[in-house]
Amino acid sequence: MKRILSLALALALLLCACASQSADETGTSEPVDETIEQTEAETDPVETEAETNPTETEAEPSEAALLYVNPLNGEAIAEPYTARPVAVMLNNILAAMPQHGQSQADILYEVLAEGGITRCMAIYSDVSAVPKIGSVRSSRLYYVELAQSYDAIYVHAGGSTEALNYLSSSGWADIDGNSGSSSYFYRDSDRIASGYAWEHTLFTSGPQLVAAAEALGLRSTVEEGTTFGLEFDDSTVYVGSSAETVQVKFGIGTKTTSFTYNADDSLYYAAQFGSDYIDGTTGEALTFRNLLVLRTSLSVLSGEAGYLRVDTTGSGTGYYMCNGQCVAIRWSRESVTDPFTYTLESGAPLVLSPGKTYIAVVSTSASIQYS
Fold it and tell me: What contacts 29, CB < 8 A, 6 or more positions away?
């Protein structure tokens, strides 16, 4: 035992001597400790949130930067909205289905045309990235007036005499696929090969419309102070009559558009002609967060092949459907260049939920069913 202790003591003395010699050779007795502290600082740093959860940290500045609102859909955006909206006339009869590009519109109008059919007008806050739009159809005066409420560039292929005369006399910004702007439209070869009628084959695209507007010298931004009359707030929820299924009947023996509410995503899924209302580009059914039905006076023009006159100014009643509920509303508009104003029956401003909106303009006698 004494021998073992002696050996241990000798070994300890030897190690101390080596350490002392190392310190003497470096000129100081501190470097080893400093090296250990520095190594600990480099290899075991204090973890930061950015290092432990980089995805969340990177997302925060982006979310914080969304300080503005798109005035056509209520969604948050990073910069003030300045682009001028674009409104495109779309064919909406069974023989012309499917439409293309309408699901990317922020607002989709549907209004009667002559012969008991309807026509649609898609309004885009940013049309530039839409790959295919159509089939593009002709103009009617009341569609021009609806487009004017958004200061929108109006896209069409010809039109009624009344509409074309108004576009010419008013100088309103339009792009006509039947005139000198035809190079910014094209005939769909697949549709032609499939036997579609010629009037159902005219298409364009977002990039082509942007190029056409530039070539025609059309103003591409909204004028300062422009408003579109729409208010959005996701926290506003109206309680009215149940509206989980909605049918908009445009008149006796005429077109019906149906909607079914899905509580899982708070969207209305559209159907027409006995099946889903499909965007031919995506192959998916159209969905809307908001449904607006506006009642107004309709009459038949004399001497213009049964074309209609639809009042888009003045005031009237209507319905607003959202979150599976329906409430009665009122609309008003002083002139064709003013935005529509929407209120509840109490006179309080109507507040929409952020998202896409469908707007049907119907006669005062049209049947609107919801349950």
Answer: 23
